[in-house]
Each structure stands twice: as structure tokens, then as C-alpha cells.
Amino acid sequence: MQLRPRQTVFVDRCKTALTQHGNTIGVATVGFGKTIALSAIAASYPRSLVLQHRIELLEQNRSKFQRVAPNATTATFAADHKRWATDGHTFAMVQSLGTKVSIPLMQPVDLIVIDEAHHASAASYLRVIEQAKKLNPATHILGVTATPERGDGKGLRAVFSNIADVVSLAEMVQSGFLVRPRTFVIDLGMQDKLGALKKSGSEFDMDAAAALMDIEPVTERVIQEWFDLAKDRKTIGFATNVAHAKHMTEAFKNAGVAVECVDGTTPDAVRRGIWRRFKSGETQMVWNCAVATEGFDEPSVSCVILNRPSMHKGTMIQMIGRGLRTISEPDQYPGLIKDDCIIIDLGSSLLNHGGLEVDAIIDSRQAKPGEAPTKECPKCKTIIPMGCRNCPSCSHQFLTEDRDGRTLVGDFVLTEIELLDLSPYRWETLWENQVVIADGLSAAAILVSYAGIWWTYGILKGERNIRLLNRSHDKIMALANGDDFLRTHGDKTAAKKSKRWLNERASEKQCQILGISPVSFSIPNRYKAACMLTWMFNEKKIQASIAAHAH
Fold it and tell me: In sequence order, which ranges of 238-342 are alpha helices (DSSP H)?
């Protein structure tokens, strides 16, 4: 597996910070592939311990690690299976390892990786770190998260002294790995009242927020705006509290929408049924209260309603992020083409937090791997990347020009040329830009333009079937999907675009199959001939696939 260029930069910056400080945290938004990045970092150490707080994360992290480092030794330490990789890499549930009974079973490691590192200040994590330092004082500590602690910073400061890198949502959008958010801020005339709400723990008092927002005129406005902007879209709605979520569900049901509600008291079996119907499209809308904020991913969602305020920008981004994933398995969503996500904000979150992109504009798009410029936050003293306008640790705002709050990603657009330059593979354009193809020997990616839509296909050599990777009106998104497929499945050494053989004259056999005279003056090079043959062998399959999915 080959890392994306931005993942390589992230890995290099984290490794540099670990060498300099012995600990660091890396912040990466939804869709970045932080599991791949943390795996690459862990694999560079002889012995590592990867900590997570959910069994789903443990299984996901170990699986991705084995793809990045297939020859490494791994083991899992969980409630029902306590094994340790003495000279390798152990993936552990912190609830199982961080107990007084299990702590003595720990063995020395060179690196501890904490996934979802905003939880790292919990006593169980601190016990594991303390024991690791006793066994090996040189143990490094790496944290990875999409949303670091947004309060006073003390939670982070207990473990981490610096932030090595921040990958913003805007970066992922401009690179084609997330869809573009289209934001609609609905001014209800309550921005000052919402901003003045009392705190309850680390968030606004949501019962007080409900008193402002769970009223009939606001509910009617939400319904009106949704029907005007997103009535054909699968939607997730966030309410202030459970009663508010139920009221919104009932109101939309009365308006003729297929809608359901989920909250913290919903039994697991019932919840699974709700999400299953939501995925299939039987249910179009789901309202929730603090359930779908973290760890919920349904890529067919293309509208998010924020019918609540957010004290912390991280919470707002988590909610909006539920609708920004691209469709990676189009066969599961026949007829759905997703290029953007509509965000309807009635809680003034975007106005209060100044949009999504201002947390981290890191250097330039052409930033090369290496040490990033840093500065010290004057409030919490955390070392952070120079480009941050808000401290990811404590939310301190650095002086910036005024913004209207409605601009989301501005003019940050990765061009087609830039994306192709960043790809390790050579992309060939065939038949007047209707087909774009890259061949990675063991795999190939093909883009086909048909009826205004770019269809992205992946091909594994040796498999009879082709894979429909994505459909999009945006060529950048189509290229990003194809390039990701090749980075995962292509031959990362023999097919790189710098290889000399790619420019050699096509072989006699290639010319024979393509029907090109061996004395022709327009014989292509070997690589373009290989791409043409890949298209020839798969054209009918692709035509059949497009015909099947286009209607």
C-alpha cells in the first residue's frame, strides 16, 4: 500500500516531532485515512502498542496495519484474548489493558499510539503510559485524532506537549477525498442568546438551548428550509436534547417524510434496524441527540441539519463530517451521485466558529515532507503548526481578518494538473478526453466520461469482474478515487511513472493485438500501449456496467 502525498507529509512530521519531543499529537479530519498514517508510523518502530477504546477500532486498526506492514508480527489484547507481541506490535483495548490486573502483563515497547487521542487524559490511559515508561523510559507517545480536546487544554497537556500537524477539512475537500459542503446559515435572530447560554460540563446547557429552539416557529422554519434545499437528499439531523429530537421526528413525519429517531436510550437491536433502513433508503431522515456525532459513517448522507448550537468547533465539524464522505461503493447506492453535502445551520455554529477551514491552513499544497514551521500557543503553551488560526488544543484564536462566517472553503481548489503530478502513476488520456487510464501492472484505474458524469472503475489483474469505484460530476473527485485504488492495489515499484521502460517503443506483440503496423510512424510507447490494451480488454464490461447503472 502506498500513502497519499499528504499522508506521507503527516507521517514525516509526526516522526520528526517524536524524535524531538518524545511525544506528539497529529490532528487529521474525517476521510484523511489516519489509520493508514498511524500504521506507517507504528511500523517504523521495532515494538509498538496501539491503544483504542472501541473493539471496532481495534479490528480496523490491526487490519489496516497488516496491509501497511504485511510482514510484521501483531497480537491483540482485549477482554477475551490477551496476547502480547513481544518483538512486534500489540493492539489493545485500553479498558482491558489499563486495569490493575492487566498492567503487570505489559512488556516493553518503543512507541505507544493512542487512537482518538482526545480520550488520552483518562486514568486508564495514564496508567498504561506510566507502566510503559517504567519498562522503557525512552518510549515515545503518539496521539492521533480528528478532534483534540477543545476546552482549557489541560487534558492534552497531561500527555502531549506539541501538535505535529493538522490536516484540515478544506484540504481533504480540495483534494477530492471529501465532497464539498454547501452551507446555508439560517439566521433566527438568536445568535446572541445562543452564544450566551450557560455551560454544562464541556458543552452548552442543551436543555436551555431547547427552550430557545424546540418551539413551533423554529420547527416550521426547519421543515420549510429542508423542503426548499434538500427534499430529495438523505438527511441526518442533530437536536439539542432527546425530547427535541423526538419532536423534530414527529413534525417531519406529519409533513410526509420517512423519518426515525435514535438517542442514547435506543436499544442496540432497534438502533441497528434504524440504521439498516436508513442505509437502504427506506428511511430518508434520522434525527438524533449526541449519538451520530462520533463513529457514525453513512456515505449516502448528503444533508446535515444543525438544529442546535455547538460550543466547540470540533463538535460542529464532527457533525458536519457525517455528510462529507464520498460514495466508495456505488453498487450499494444505485442511482445516487454525490458531489456535495448541504449543511443547514440554525444554531449559529458556523457564524460563531467562522467556518470550517480556518482551524488549519498548513503551509501550501506543494509542501514537501519535513519539519513544519511551528509556534507556541500563548494560552496553553502547546507547540502547534504555524498555519493554525485556532489552537486545536485550547481553541485560542489568533488575530485574523474578519470573516462573514458563510464562506466555507473559499477558492481552495486542487487542479487536475496538480493531482496528476502528485500521483505516482502516469495517467493517459484516450479518445478526446473521454477515457483517462492509469495502469499499475497488478491493477488499473479507468475514468470514463458519459452523459456528463465521470465513472471510475478499478481493475485487479487476474479478476474477471471490474469494480465501479465512484460516479461524480467532478473529475477531480473521480481521479482521486482512481488514484487511491492504484495506491492500494498497484505495483508500487515496477509501474511508477519514473520507470524507464514506460517510454520504450511498444512491443511487437502489443502492436499486433492493437492492430498497429510495426513500421507505423505513430507507434505508442509501451506504457500507452498497455493502457490501450487494458481499455480494449475491459471496454465491453464497462459499457455494460454503465448501461446497468445509468437507468
Answer: 242-254, 268-280, 313-321
In the chain, ranges of CATH 3.40.50.300 domains: 5-168, 179-353
Residue 104 in grid coordinates: 503487570
For residue 428, give the DSSP letter. E
User: What are the residues facing 48 on neighbouring strands?
Assistant: 89, 111
DSSP strand pairing (443-450 vs 303-306): unpaired
Residues near 496 by Cβ (< 8 Å), separated by ≥ 6? 424, 425
| 3 state DSSP class of 303 | strand
Instruction: Write the DSSP assignment of 28-46 as a string of letters.
Output: E-TTS-HHHHHHHHHHTSS
Whether domain 179-353 has CATH 3.30.950.10:
no
Number of Cβ within a 10 Å radius of residue 492: 17
Which residue spans within 29-110 are E strands per DSSP?
48-52, 74-78, 81-82, 89-93
Q: How many CB atoms neighbour CB 461 within 10 A?
A: 14
Per the model's pLDDT, the better-predicted residue between 427 and 353 turns out to be 427
State how far the Cα of 354 lies from the Cα of 443, in Å rounded to an integer: 43
DSSP β-bridge partners for residue 288: 238, 262
Q: Cβ distance 233 to 302 under 8 Å? A: yes
Strand bridging mode 435-439 / 428-430 = antiparallel
Q: Please count the other Cβ atoms lying within 10 Å of the Cβ belonging to residue 368.
A: 10
Q: Which three cell numbers stand for residue 376?
A: 507556541
* Average pLDDT estimate for 309-338: 85
Using the predicted structure, report yes or no on whether residue 451 has a pLDDT greater than 60. Answer: yes
3-state secondary structure of 70: coil
Cα 300 to the center of its chain, rounded Å: 15
Tell me the residue type at 251: A
Say if CB 188 and CB 307 are below 8 A apart: no
* C-beta of residue 320 within 8 angstroms of C-beta of residue 340: no
Between the alpha carbon of residue 281 and those of residues 260, 308, 337, 548, the distances in Å are 12, 25, 14, 20
Class of domain 5-168: alpha beta
Helix (H) or strand (E) holding 23: strand 23-28
Mind listing the pLDDT tens digit for each residue in 205-219?
888 889 999 999 999
| DSSP output for 97-155 | HTSTTTGGG----SEEEEESGGGTTSHHHHHHHHHHHHH-TT-EEEEEESS---SSSHH
- Using CA of residue 35, residue 332, residue 175, residue 225, what is the dihedral sign? negative
Residue type, 259: V
Most confident of 54-58, 187-191, 269-273, 360-364: 269-273
Query: pLDDT tens for residues 24-34?
Result: 999 998 888 89
